[in-house]
Specification:
- It is a single chain.
- By secondary structure, the protein is mostly beta strands.
- The chain has a domain at 203-293: Beta Barrel (Thrombin, subunit H), CATH 2.40.10.
- Helix content is 1%, strand content 51%.
- It is built from one helix and 26 strands.
- The strands form seven sheets. A four-stranded antiparallel β-sheet has the order 1-2-5-6, with no helix packed on it. Strands 7-8-9-10 form a four-stranded antiparallel β-sheet, with no helix packed on it. The protein has a four-stranded antiparallel β-sheet with strand order 11-12-13-14.
- The longest helix has 4 residues, at 132-135.
Length: 293
């Protein structure tokens, strides 16, 4: 994150489908304690204006998103300079919003409760994945994995083939143009869903991975099997992911990286950060970890 923003409160951060690092900042926020974990920033007023900082390989620009009414937990960039945000809203179930190129809200819609992932691709597809609290209580979240168009219209939801467990919680999600890959509790299959209607399930040797990168006939899964810093490189067959080799995840200086926030999987790239929202790292299906920004 550029140093001039070090004193600002970051509401959320991600890496988008174009490889740009995004930070959503509230210019008037305070840290609120929570029962578990680190304090979180909360806007002092609502609605509020948020500053979006975009780092595109060192070229930094700002965009103001006006009159935000959500306490944002997830957001992503859409094609044509738009953005989608999701969060908590005390005013009802419309917990997702789309902002136009002018930074003003264009639409609000219900995305369901307990969103674990929100990711968009470059072809006007938006994917939302859920954890158990929403799956068992909300009709939108019940499918576990849902696809929307970039206007916020529901397009598709997951329904497992006969004899396959339903989604309880999505543990890892990877989104590339026209395809999403997911692993989910309780059986942790590798689910491949294509926007042309193709669906495939494969057995995997990794239980509860935290993230993954997919490239060609290989998938690299991070964590799982109670080893948060283990990378599992697998070869894809028609019916399973076969373990080829394992490696340790390290920082560029060789130090281990065992504690990290929710990874962002974009095709062959897997983006990670530690407990701070200000520094991202990137690894891919065949390379070691290196700084992203």
């Amino acid at each position: 994150m550029p140093r001039q923003y070090d004193h600002q409160k970051v509401l959320a951060t991600t890496v988008d489908a174009w490889g740009r690092t995004l930070w959503l900042i509230c210019l008037d926020a305070e840290l609120r304690p929570r029962a578990y974990g680190r304090p979180y920033p909360e806007p002092r007023t609502c609605p509020y204006d948020a500053l979006l900082v975009i780092d595109n390989d060192g070229a930094v620009r700002e965009q103001l998103l006006r009159d935000m009414s959500l306490r944002v937990t997830h957001f992503d960039a859409l094609p044509n300079g738009r953005f989608v945000v999701q969060g908590y809203n005390g005013a009802g179930d419309r917990n997702a919003q789309i902002y136009g190129t002018d930074g003003r809200r264009r639409r609000s819609f219900a995305m369901g409760r307990a969103v674990e992932y929100l990711m968009a691709d470059r072809r006007h597809h938006v994917w939302s994945a859920y954890f158990d609290e929403g799956v068992y209580s909300d009709p939108i979240s019940a499918a576990g994995l849902v696809r929307w168009d970039s206007g916020g219209n529901h397009q598709w939801e997951y329904s497992p083939p006969k004899g396959v467990e339903y989604i309880d919680t999505v543990y890892a999600l990877n989104v590339d143009d026209g395809v999403a890959w997911a692993t989910y509790y309780p059986t942790f299959p590798l689910l491949e869903v294509r926007t042309d209607g193709g669906i495939r399930l494969r057995r995997t040797p990794v239980v509860a991975p935290a993230g993954m990168a997919v490239h060609g006939e290989h998938v690299t899964m991070l964590g799982g099997n109670r080893q948060s810093d283990r990378l599992h490189r697998c070869r894809l067959t028609e019916s399973e992911a076969v373990l080829v080799e394992e490696a340790r995840l390290t920082l560029p200086n060789g130090a281990p990286l065992k504690r990290y926030a929710r990874p962002v999987g974009r095709g062959r790239h897997l983006y990670l950060r530690g407990t701070s929202p200000r520094q991202w790292y990137m690894t891919d299906a065949q390379a070691a970890s290196r700084p992203a920004t």
